[in-house]
Amino acid sequence: MPIVYKTRKTIEKEQAREITRKIITENLEELLDAQIKNAIGIRHLMMRDAATGKLRRVGSDINDAELTKAQIDAALKTGDAFWIYTKDPSVQAFTDLMNRSLDKPAQQVSVKGSDTGPIVIRWEDTLEARLHSGRERVRQLRHDNAATETDAE
After folding, report:
1. 65, 84, 104, 121: least buried by Cβ within 10 Å?
2. Residue 84 and residue 1: Cα distance in Å, rounded?
3. Is the pLDDT of residue 54 over 90?
4. Tell me, what DSSP letter sits at residue 80?
């Protein structure tokens, strides 16, 4: 078995890749949620305050997820709330998610010959060429042997 040698740079790169993989795996659910939200678009639930008439963002209490969920549910039940998109949906994020989860679709390949004409395929069987070459050598040896026997008589 051959001895495998890795340079220091290769080892450092592998270690960095492993650290990155670990951090991403630990935060995978949150990262996926963020990527999905990016594909959908960044949106905020807004509601007009009855007392002031001003628009206010609903569910902006980031520290308490349950409170945020309750605020959003209550606002949606009133019928006066609406979503405002502050960032359009990202086709690139959607495509990336689809390619990673359902496999990347096969890309079409077009193959054309010279000057976009037909493709010309020549089959050269090396075994056939070797057999032909061997037969020629045998034929030449037989011819040479026949000539030697004629000279010997």
Report:
1. 121
2. 63
3. no
4. -
CB distance 75 to 58 below 8 Å: yes
Q: What's the count of helices (H) and strands (E) in the chain, helices before strands?
A: 5, 3
The backbone torsions φ and ψ at residue 118, rounded to the nearest 5 degrees and listed phi first, read: -70, 160
- Residue 102 has, within 13 A of its CA and on its CB side, a CA count of 7
Note whether 141 and 134 are within 8 A (CB).
Answer: no
Which pLDDT tens digit goes with each residue over 102-151?
777 777 777 776 677 777 777 666 777 788 888 999 999 998 888 777 76
Q: Which value, to the nearest 10 degrees, does the dihedral of the CA atoms of residues 65, 69, 71, 74 take?
A: -160
Residue type, 146: A
In what helix (H) or strand (E) does residue 79 lie, and over which residues does it extend?
none
Residue whose tokens read 């030697």:
148
The pTM of the full predicted model, rounded to 2 decimals, is: 0.42
- Whether residue 69 is predicted with pLDDT greater than 80 in this model: the reply is no
- End-to-end alpha-carbon separation of the chain, Å? 62
